[in-house]
Write a structure and sequence with these properties.
CATH topology of one domain: Thrombin, subunit H
Structural class: alpha+beta
Number of helices: 2
Radius of gyration: 28 Å
Distance between the termini: 141 Å
Strand order of the largest sheet: 1-2-5-4-3-12
CATH class of one domain: Mainly Beta
Order of helices and strands: HHEEEEEEEEEEEE
């Protein structure tokens, strides 16, 4: 009689080996995870070195994966923009009319500033960037908001240097490897950025909320000076960030505070620029000594 066509799992040696191998891989993964947790708890320095070594190896792979994600996201944005093109046309036309009047006013102010700077002999030369590099990773839901740059100590990057993108400020460098560096984002709860309102120049502080937004607090107690839609820029105070870098836009206001949305999103930015630490130029006053009168 012919043997039955259906056999139980126990009769297949290949299936037994596969099941055993799966158990071995699962147990090994659990043990490795426990070892990493214990190492991070009792040996943070060694864990940081191990993480840096893994990042050195996986940085090229992460960059390739990020390129694929950007391609998929660009396709989705193109489809979304196609369906919203009609509704946005009228709003953009109205904004263009309002922007023309603001542009004329801004050009008048620019000419006046140029005339005053010539009178005061003030020359502003923006500092040359340290490095222009790719963003190869960013944390979107971690307890600490970080981004990873494909530039490190070999490119002249050091801890404390500000990092910005085309749209605005991203954060500052907090950790440096040989060919990579970590950036603490301005949306992290441990990050505080001195800012001013572009509308009236009132100084304030922007603190990250940890969920991708910024909490704004004025330096002078009283009624909140913020309005919805206000643009905030860096003030240059504190000796880290250069002045007049766009930071975010106010989206809601409370009694004493306001919430802003940052302009630069590391998950959508391809390139970032590392700048030197800002040092405010010292004011120089030249007083001419009185000339003695002729007898």
């Amino acid at each position: 009689m012919a043997p039955p066509s259906h056999r139980r799992l126990g009769f297949s040696r290949r299936a037994q080996y596969g099941l055993f191998l799966g158990y071995v891989i699962a147990v090994a993964g659990v043990l490795c995870g426990l070892a990493l947790v214990i190492m991070a708890r009792f040996d943070p320095k060694g864990f940081t070195i191990l993480r840096g070594a893994v990042l050195e190896i996986t940085a090229p792979v992460a960059e390739v994966g990020r390129a694929g994600v950007r391609a998929v996201r660009s396709a989705n944005d193109a489809v979304y923009a196609y369906f919203r093109a009609g509704s946005q046309n009228a709003a953009l036309t109205a904004e263009l009319k309002a922007a023309r009047s603001r542009l004329i006013h801004a050009r008048a102010i620019e000419r006046e500033n140029a005339r005053l700077k010539q009178l005061l002999h003030v020359a502003e030369t923006p500092p040359a960037p340290i490095a222009v590099t790719r963003i190869i990773g960013s944390t979107g839901s971690n307890s600490q908001r970080l981004a990873t740059l494909a530039a490190g100590s070999a490119d002249g990057v050091h801890s404390g240097q500000p990092v910005r993108g085309p749209e605005g400020l991203i954060g500052r460098v907090t950790g440096v490897g040989f060919n990579f560096s970590y950036v603490l984002l301005i949306t992290d709860s441990a990050s505080t950025t001195p800012i001013v309102l572009a509308r009236n120049g009132i100084a304030a502080l922007a603190t990250g909320t940890g969920d991708g937004r910024l909490e704004l607090r004025p330096l002078i107690a009283g009624a909140t000076p913020f309005r919805r839609g206000d643009l905030i820029v860096t003030s240059g105070a504190g000796g880290i960030y250069p002045p007049n870098i766009p930071v975010g836009v106010v989206v809601s206001t409370n009694r004493d505070t306001a919430i802003a949305r940052p302009l630069a999103d590391p998950s959508r930015v391809d390139y970032a620029m590392v700048q030197p630490v800002w040092h405010a130029p010292a004011a120089r006053l030249s007083v001419s000594a009185p000339q003695p009168r002729a007898p």
